[in-house]
Design brief:
The chain is an alpha/beta fold. The protein contains 20 helices and 14 strands. The strands form 3 sheets. A 7-stranded parallel beta sheet has the order 5-3-2-6-7-8-9, sandwiched between helices. Strands 12-11-10-13-14 form a 5-stranded parallel beta sheet, sandwiched between helices. The longest helix has 20 residues. The relative contact order is 0.10.
Amino acid sequence: MPVPQSPRSNPLPMALLRDALDRTLLEPQCAQRWHSLFTAWLETRDANRRASVQDLLAKLPEGDPRADILRLTFLAGTSGASHYENTAAALVLAAQPADPDRLAAFMAYRWLAALQTIAQRPDFVADLSVGLVPEMAERLVQAATRQLPPGFVARRPDEIRRVAVVVPYVGHRFHTPSMMAVEQCIVLARQGIQVQIFSAQELLPADAALFRGDGRRLVLPPLQPKSWAGILPAGINMTISDSRYSLPGRWRNLMPTLAAFDPDAVLLVGLYSPLAGALYSLRPVVGISVNTVAPIAPLDVWLTAGPANVRGETWGGRFPAPQAVHHPFRVKRPVAGTPLPRAELGIDDKAVVWISAGFRLEHEIRDEWAKRMLELVARYPQVVWLLVGGEGKLPPALAQAGRGRVRALATRDDLPAILRSSDIYVNPPRMGGGFSVAEAMAEGLPVIALAGSDGGDKLGELALPHLDACTERLAALIENPRLRREMGAALRQRFDRQLDIAASGPALLEAFKVASGLARERLHA
């Protein structure tokens, strides 16, 4: 997720701000100058001084587009006003010649910021659309297509024997999208399909921070190649680009390996990937997203967790609308095990333990929802709330919790054991969180989640329509152990029927057959 760089300590923040502003205006195209100004602005306690800097920069006339992009993103970071970010996005899209790294950086910042701040699907789609993310994706697909080598030509396969699994980013084994791609590979391999994973690491362009003036950086789980060696079955390899190269260089370096593998079809696992978009001109493409929206990419088939008769968002018609195929299978059931003893966490056996999990909880738990959760914690002294994931930092919105009542734990590999020691899974209002919800369902936990989001969609009719309903349901679960058991059992059954990836192989192969049939006419043309 995008996070601000830590401000430097400075005993004279007003003087530093004045000096940083003067230097920045002398070199308006220098990103480092804008980053220094942003840091000085953060350190300055004088509200009038801050406002005067914003006012001056907002009134500057348009100049060089590169300098204007830095200025506008600075203003977006200092004011929180989305129109500055949207105007900067328009300039990025209009800039000629197009810079794939700048486009990809803006896409990644916008997407990760939306995941961090937006609770429900319609708002998520609207935010990315206003931020011109579909248009940027289209431009990047065109750039990646230009990197296809001459000998790598369109082919209409009669049988699916080899599948290239394309992932926009591979991190470590706790990174949900990465693990989702690996699990899909394992399913295909068990069906006798030869599989290879390819990633140009498109979510992390080189020097992404230099395209913005707000001092923010992209923070993603780091790539850990050695950790995958013990997870991938024999015969499944990963080909991952060196992230020090530009995106065109990464695509160009991957193409010979892709051509040598000569896949019969492509599986995109993620919200978007220009590399997968380029392959659409050569092979059938199936897409599956971690989020509950159609990928922003050209596809033949979209594997949707929702009803198959609901057409995927077409993202403004930038890409052909894919055929939706109901395929909700996403999560592998954890290996059976024992609960983590509560004593190891310093929790009484009589406590009612809530648990929330995720890498972005520090930012996702906020506002009215956090206030309501703290009210319930105060009302029920037996409640202890565990937040598992990320760096283990307590969200600022929960700083007023009583001592020991809310506890933050960094990412760890025994989450299933902690779930088994918990009583209720509490999912914040967010687009993400769907996989942790599914894992809680697999362990038989009752779950609180809003409808219209990744997590809520896993629950079906048990998802809740608004915050009042969440508060009421949670209070009832705290007070009634029998209700907890009944809801947990119902959700475990739902996981077995609709989410467990173990039995999804035949359905996945059938989806590829559908995609192959749809692709025959367009590839012939």
